[in-house]
């Protein structure tokens, strides 16, 4: 009992071939779209490379680019097959390739699903990577004279202004590190000496933040220094002030941004999976219908198209038997070899006897 | 003596008509481009209208939008006419409209040229508008509690961050206005009262700038307060320090930005003008050659095409006399005491036959 059998007249076969040709070109466009999506995501991740510790999250755009290219190739092959499908002399050469093509198409769909799953699963790794990267960035903020780190200040300032965030988790991260370089500290001043002595590592810590944490939407000119001291500024209360600086942490801001990017690509990827599946099914129907038509006496007549020749259980049993046969063929079984040799001798004797009695 | 006479065979006329049809459709596309450029400029000017004083600079994008739309319509009509000109019978439909169409298109191309020149002349008005507008915006920077002005602080801050500029002409503009609101000044402190008393108008002036003036590329954390006081900061010299704050004034930064846009648009409009002019020339040649062909009576014959039938001076003279006679037709004719019923014998040499023509014999109906 064939699975999802459908009858195909000559005209329907022609229509199917034409429709599938268009669909496979659409799938080529979708493959190009997936590739461009991967490139865009990769560029966005590379732009903020300096605040990320490791590159695990790059698996998502890499996979997208790979699948995009493979999809373009596979669907182009599908369109060529469609063009040749109605020509009885040219179609048979594609027969061998088609089984491999089905495998590739199924693999592409699985990979696209994996991409969607990965983009959610790698969120934790992204956050960890950002946490470490931002911590280092903030620590090396003051080292504008150290080669290799001299652009950290600019990077962090730009990041905080663009993403409207401050610090790693929040602005208090700036209180724990020294972000003013020793080059600009007057070591003869008593205040500086006191501050440096006040902590174990001898760092100049203050309850202030860089200017890039300032929120332009605040009604009041930005307060950057002595933030925890409510008396240092007129009409200011540290606990209730929330418009003065950006309240969000940069790790949260960046994670939200990247998750937003990947989520918005989700529907696109899912629709590409659907298109690829429909190309796969239509190709199977076309193959079986054209094969059926070529086996008929009159090639213009009606033929049947199906997805599987027998139903799922029977096909599975058949495939299993074939696989086991292949395995058995590959095995070297000494017992069966000897038994086979004996049987061969007996058969030779029997045929010799039969020959003499016949003669 | 015709101006720039060219001979046209039938095949050349047909080719010309076809090419002009395609060119007219390309002109429709350029009309759409002009329209969208005008729209883009309008949006860009509207985005920063808070920083521009009330000067009438919107006329430039409005002109571009109008010119773009009219270009689309005219060239669409031109395309239809040229398409029909291949067939001499269809040309008869358009014969009477073609000359007015050409004249209108000629005046329209003048409008396009005026539009291009306006793009370049807008520069001075824009500079004045920006100067006044920025001055006002900086003055009202502190008024975040006044309705209608409460977003100026945010606008000026984002402007200074985005365009990497500070103040109107430079950062010193901030020293001359009070940019901290009285709400945040502790009036009980002596220092505040001293500052307020130190100038005539009672403004709290200081040698400090808002945070948005800070330069991102500076190797040192931003110095915003006591900028002119070298001893207030370690290892700091006010006169030689140029990386601490943005050095460019916002008026100049915005002017550069808009001038760049205007120059690109002006160039595009000039190219469009040249293109339109060449299409118009082609249509004029087509019109004159088809009319001459009709005059000769043979659709397959060679005909001449020209820009003007007589030389430029003669054409100008004839047109002026036509305009004068149009004016005269309103006046009363005093030749025969103003009586229009008197029969004045015809003085032309043509013989139009006898005045009384006997009626034709009626056909006998069967």
TrEMBL record, chain A:
<dbReference type="InterPro" id="IPR042026">
    <property type="entry name" value="Peripherin_LEL"/>
</dbReference>
<feature type="compositionally biased region" description="Low complexity">
    <location>
        <begin position="349"/>
        <end position="359"/>
    </location>
</feature>
<dbReference type="Pfam" id="PF00335">
    <property type="entry name" value="Tetraspanin"/>
</dbReference>
<feature type="transmembrane region" description="Helical">
    <location>
        <begin position="99"/>
        <end position="122"/>
    </location>
</feature>
<dbReference type="InterPro" id="IPR018498">
    <property type="entry name" value="Peripherin/rom-1_CS"/>
</dbReference>
<dbReference type="GO" id="GO:0007601">
    <property type="term" value="P:visual perception"/>
</dbReference>
<dbReference type="InterPro" id="IPR000830">
    <property type="entry name" value="Peripherin/rom-1"/>
</dbReference>
<keyword id="KW-1133">Transmembrane helix</keyword>
<dbReference type="InterPro" id="IPR008952">
    <property type="entry name" value="Tetraspanin_EC2_sf"/>
</dbReference>
<feature type="transmembrane region" description="Helical">
    <location>
        <begin position="20"/>
        <end position="40"/>
    </location>
</feature>
<protein>
    <submittedName>
        <fullName>Retinal outer segment membrane protein 1b</fullName>
    </submittedName>
</protein>
<feature type="region of interest" description="Disordered">
    <location>
        <begin position="338"/>
        <end position="359"/>
    </location>
</feature>
<dbReference type="InterPro" id="IPR018499">
    <property type="entry name" value="Tetraspanin/Peripherin"/>
</dbReference>
<keyword id="KW-0812">Transmembrane</keyword>
<comment type="similarity">
    <text>Belongs to the PRPH2/ROM1 family.</text>
</comment>
<dbReference type="GO" id="GO:0005886">
    <property type="term" value="C:plasma membrane"/>
</dbReference>
<keyword id="KW-0472">Membrane</keyword>
<feature type="transmembrane region" description="Helical">
    <location>
        <begin position="60"/>
        <end position="78"/>
    </location>
</feature>
From TrEMBL, chain B:
<feature type="transmembrane region" description="Helical">
    <location>
        <begin position="59"/>
        <end position="78"/>
    </location>
</feature>
<protein>
    <recommendedName>
        <fullName>Peripherin 2-like a</fullName>
    </recommendedName>
</protein>
<feature type="transmembrane region" description="Helical">
    <location>
        <begin position="20"/>
        <end position="39"/>
    </location>
</feature>
<dbReference type="GO" id="GO:0005886">
    <property type="term" value="C:plasma membrane"/>
</dbReference>
<dbReference type="InterPro" id="IPR008952">
    <property type="entry name" value="Tetraspanin_EC2_sf"/>
</dbReference>
<keyword id="KW-1133">Transmembrane helix</keyword>
<dbReference type="InterPro" id="IPR018499">
    <property type="entry name" value="Tetraspanin/Peripherin"/>
</dbReference>
<keyword id="KW-0812">Transmembrane</keyword>
<keyword id="KW-0472">Membrane</keyword>
<feature type="region of interest" description="Disordered">
    <location>
        <begin position="332"/>
        <end position="366"/>
    </location>
</feature>
<dbReference type="Pfam" id="PF00335">
    <property type="entry name" value="Tetraspanin"/>
</dbReference>
<feature type="transmembrane region" description="Helical">
    <location>
        <begin position="99"/>
        <end position="123"/>
    </location>
</feature>
<dbReference type="GO" id="GO:0007601">
    <property type="term" value="P:visual perception"/>
</dbReference>
<dbReference type="InterPro" id="IPR000830">
    <property type="entry name" value="Peripherin/rom-1"/>
</dbReference>
<comment type="similarity">
    <text>Belongs to the PRPH2/ROM1 family.</text>
</comment>
<feature type="compositionally biased region" description="Polar residues">
    <location>
        <begin position="332"/>
        <end position="349"/>
    </location>
</feature>
<dbReference type="InterPro" id="IPR042026">
    <property type="entry name" value="Peripherin_LEL"/>
</dbReference>
